[in-house]
Amino acid sequence: MEAMIVDNPFSGAVVCEVTFAPWADVTLLLDQAKTAAKAFQFIDLDTRIAICERAMNALEARQEAMAVDITRLMGKPITQSRAEAKKAISRGRVLITLAKKALAEEDRPGDGISRKIIREPHGVVLVTPSWNSPVLTLIGPVLTAVLAGNAVVIKHATRTSLVTKYFVNAFDDGDAPWYLVQRLDCDYATLERVMADPRIDHIVYAGSHTGAMRVKAAIAGRFVGYDLFLGGNDAAYVAHDCDFDRTVEEVVRGALGNAGQDCAAVERVYVHRVLFDRFIEAAESRMHEYVLGDPAAPGTRMGPLAKSTQITELEKLMFDAANRGGCIVLGGKRRNVDGYGRFFEPTLITDVRHDMQVIQRETLGPVMPVVVVDSDEQAILRMNDVSLGLTASLWTKDATHAERIARQLEVGTVYLNRCSQIDPVLPWSGRKGSGNGVAYGYDGFYRLTRPKSLLFQRVI
Fold first, then answer.
1. Model pLDDT for residues 22-81, shown as the tens digit of each residue
2. Distance between CA 354 and CA 364 in Å, rounded?
3. Mean pLDDT on 126-150
4. How many angstroms separate the CA atoms of 430 and 432, rounded?
5. Per residue, what are the HEC states of the chain?
6. What is the share, in percent, of the chain residues with pLDDT greater than 70?
7. 388: exposed, middle or buried (Cβ count in 10 Å: 0-12, 13-18, 19+)
8. What is the pLDDT confidence band of residue 460, given thresholds at 50, 70 and 90?
9. Which tens digit of pLDDT belongs to each residue from 201-242?
10. Are 282 and 395 in contact (CB under 8 A)?
11. What gap in Å lies between CA 199 and CA 32, rounded to an integer?
12. How distant, in Å, are the alpha carbons of 264, 327, 360 from that of 291?
């Protein structure tokens, strides 16, 4: 059977070998999932909630082991991996608290007619999370799907497939029905075949634009729902009246956290001219504080990149920026630490033109281009002038001012004086090339169910 070796991005040592299932095993798994889904749809919501609560307790008990594996698989500093594991469990518990209201039956009586809306599960939901935040991209769709009455098949990115075992084991420990949550490891050709299979009733995909096009091609002959989460190229606007020191600290953290490998990382910064020179000086100073090193060491603030191909792509972006007149104030190069790791230096770029690739593309690296603007209107125009639209952050002391700008931005989430976070109470969505997916909040439950209307004429 075909397999893929997953290495440690820092040491280069083999972490695990992921074996791809042959089709005979895959089709058995799909049969099992379909059987589980048909039975589980009739399980009452209180029982589903109890299963998920026990699963979250089981996941919490394995929290440290999960964090260690995140660090080994993708090079995220252990302190950040622990924070990811903790945050995932917290989000799952918030989703549990939302389930009753989100899935409640609605009565709309009148005119002697009984009108009722009930929400029914799709059946089998295929969840394909991304590698960059392997637990956080998994918790939302899995918990929401199960709470809504679906069975789940998880096909994680191969690099981070190992974390899936924690979820499968947690639901087993939570006394979930057999085969309710299953792990699938396969190559991409097999995954496309799975997507096209009638036993899959809904697809949740997180990944690249190219991958999303392949998803749509795979299901072209089917009427099946899908949620696509395709990343971002997220902008921050530093207004003239911001809380300066806190703004610099948080914007730099938003750009360099997880080595910039987050879909909601700050990837473009627009600074009002009156603060520009001061901001560049302060940001450079902050970026020097990001210590590169062994991600398993508690003092490391930035680890290596998960995949070697990312470094090549970042080098291409640096070449393009320099050729178009950009000034690389800090960083811009690959490096190692004592001979170990595939690192890319924290990078600060000025003299930025808006047609540079570092502005127009998702970088997935620790790169922060900074652009000077003269007004809110110019900032809004520049912030909207890309093909992606996931999040944006505004840095000002004036909330009324911020809301006026927020309503004009072509993104799914706008932050004020914060960035790069998901609030599980609110829907998470994108605009333009960031995909059509919706997760979290009540809207996330609506995506993983279908409404059924009961229109009853009352007997007189």
1. 999 999 999 999 999 999 999 999 999 999 999 999 999 999 999 999 999 999 999 999
2. 18
3. 97
4. 7
5. CCEEEEECCCCCCEEEEEECCCHHHHHHHHHHHHHHHHHHCCCCHHHHHHHHHHHHHHHHHCHHHHHHHHHHHHCCCHHHHHHHHHHHHHHHHHHHHHHHHHCCCEECCECCEEEEEEEEECCEEEEECCCCCCCHHHHHHHHHHHHCCCEEEECCCHHHHHHHHHHHHHHHHCCCCCCCEEECCCCHHHHHHHHHCCCCCEEEEECCHHHHHHHHHHCCCCCCEEEEECCCCEEEEECCCCCHHHHHHHHHHHHHHHHHCCCCCEEEEEEEHHHHHHHHHHHHHHHCCCCECCCCCCCCCECCCCCHHHHHHHHHHHHHHHHCCCEEEECCCEEEECCEEEEECCEEEECCCCCCHHHHCCCCCCEEEEEEECCHHHHHHHHHCCCEECEEEEECCCHHHHHHHHCCCCCCEEEECCCCCCCCCCCEECEECCCCCEECHHHHHHHCEEEEEEEEECCC
6. 99
7. buried
8. low
9. 999 999 999 999 999 999 998 999 999 999 899 999 999 999
10. no
11. 10
12. 22, 23, 28
In which residue are the tokens 């990115």 written? 157
pLDDT in tens, 356-405: 999 999 999 999 999 999 999 999 999 999 999 999 999 999 999 999 99
Between helix 63-74 and helix 78-102 the angle, nearest 10°, is: 120
Q: What is the pLDDT of residue 226?
A: 96
| pLDDT value at residue 143 | 98
Where does the pLDDT of residue 109 fall: very low under 50, low under 70, confident under 90, or very high at 90 and above?
A: confident
Domains (range + CATH), the chain: 3-230+435-457 (3.40.605.10), 234-423 (3.40.309.10)
In this structure, what token pair is assigned to residue 204? 């949740």
Taking the C-alpha atoms of residue 207 and residue 335, their distance in angstroms, rounded to an integer, is: 27
The two structure tokens encoding residue 104: 């409640």
Q: Which two tokens stand for residue 162?
A: 């190992």
Cα dihedral across residues 53, 54, 59, 61: positive or negative: positive
Angle between helical axes of 164-173 and 136-147 (0-180°, round to 10) = 30
Report yes or no: 50 and 58 within 8 Å, Cβ to Cβ: no
CA distances to 140, 306, 318, 368 from 347, in Å: 32, 17, 9, 6
Supply 224's token pair: 């099946």
Q: Which residues pair with 79 in a beta bridge?
A: none
Residue with tokens 């540079």: 356
- Produce one character per residue of 173-188: b if its CB has 16 or more CB atoms within 10 Å, e if not: ebebbebbbbbbbbee
* CB distance 293 to 337 below 8 Å: yes
